[in-house]
Amino acid sequence: MPPSLTRRQCLGAAAAALAPRAFAQATPGARGDGRLIVVFLRGAVDGLSLLVPYTDRDYARLRPSIALPAPDGTDQAALRLDGTFALHPALSNLLPLWQQGVLAAVPAAGSPDPTRSHFDAQYQWETARPGKTSDAPGWLNTLAALGGAPNAVHAVGVGEANPRILAGRESVKLVARGQAASRAGVLDNPRTRAALLAVYGGDDAVSQAFRQGAGSRLQTAEELQREMQAADNGAAPPALLAQDARNLGTLMRQERALRIGFLSAGGWDTHANQGAATGSLANNLRNLAAALVQLRSDFNQPGDVIVVASEFGRTAAENGTRGTDHGHGNAMWLIGQRIAGGRWHGDWSGLAPGNLHEARDVPVHHDFRAVLAQVLRPGFGLTDSQLATVLPGVNWDRRLDGLLRRG
């Protein structure tokens, strides 16, 4: 018979049982052939407009000019998802995905680091190292290094010249747009040049812009520095996101070894004149919805997952210029056949003053790395040590265990 436990030992055991563990499942799932697409919204999208808490009495109080009307069937009102959240009307194209059960959300996710710097927050998100700004590879590059046949390229980024999330020792394919491609020198790589010509060989406006930009290598250091310091960090506006999504689909259909894709869009730093059902944010969201519908049509196999995220959220209350300022927690979207969609997952504590981070922001109840871990573990069959390598410091969040369908 084992010796009796002291009260202190009992409390310690109980705390250990309730605390987040590194990994809840002892063995990974079988390695699948699904693909992961990450869509990163640079500049901090307003999560309270993506996923509208229309039944929260503090929502309209905090946003007298930009709050969306509760669902009532009109074009200006939010679109009901359930008894807690609604969808921005500009995202109406996503409503069928929710109804089909392939779109889900985590409403209070993000980085545990409290920085409100776009540059730092984006870097930390892309390296999966909250609070650290030392040189580190991007987590998608680290993931690509674990994927399949040696000497094969497993990841591709379309749009940006050098996204940090794909930076590292592993070879990746970067299909940059226009002058960005010239700045990065990627046109000097014959393999990448061939991919660029295949994607941007059409008569559409984006293809013409690329071919024109690729012929010029003129840019001053001052111009480049201004781009690096901007919240968009080199990402194109949302108006080009659907075209980038089509290009990504073309590339990844041509090369099945490409299991990881990355897209980004800027233009989400809505400090002024954000708008409600109409306005600048609504226009951007409409473009985002078109891109996500395009991605879903191209990446619809059982193991495919699309993740949509931003570096942090925005303030719960509008500011004096009818916009929102830098916040903390945000909504993450996940799309795929394996996603337990048609519902939101995790904790949501509402917008009451006592529940806000620093009395102003949506809190982070779920580390973004824990959300990603739910997708990566079964989708790529990662062991515990591999998952910890891709997402350093990750703790398994059992509150999210229903995010993916089992079996």
Set down the secondary structure blueprint.
Elements (H helix, E strand, L loop, with lengths): L6 H12 L17 E6 L5 H4 E2 L4 H6 L16 E2 L5 E2 L7 H5 L3 E8 L7 H10 L11 H7 L9 E5 L13 E4 L2 H6 L5 H10 L5 H10 L6 H9 L11 H14 L5 E6 L14 H19 L6 E6 L19 E7 L6 E2 L21 E2 H13 L3 H7 L17
Parallel strand pairs: 1-8, 1-9, 5-11, 5-12, 6-7, 6-8
Antiparallel strand pairs: 2-4, 3-4, 5-10, 9-10
Labels describing this entry:
407 residues, nine-stranded mixed beta sheet, three-stranded antiparallel beta sheet, 14 helices, 12 strands, globular
Explain the overall architecture.
- It is a single chain.
- Helix content is 32%, strand content 13%.
- The protein has helices spanning 7-18, 47-50, 57-62, 95-99, 118-127, 139-145, 179-184, 190-199, 205-214, 221-229, 241-254, 280-298, 368-380, 384-390, and strands at 36-41, 51-52, 79-80, 86-87, 103-110, 155-159, 173-176, 260-265, 305-310, 330-336, 343-344, 366-367.
- It starts with 6 loop residues before the first helix and ends in a 17-residue tail after the last helix.
- The chain has 407 residues and is an alpha/beta fold.
- The strands form two sheets. Strands 1, 5, 6, 7, 8, 9, 10, 11 and 12 form a nine-stranded mixed sheet that branches. The protein has a three-stranded antiparallel sheet with strand order 2-4-3.
- The protein is globular.
- It has one domain: Alkaline Phosphatase, subunit A, CATH 3.40.720.
- The longest helix is centred in the C-terminal third of the chain and has 19 residues, at 280-298.
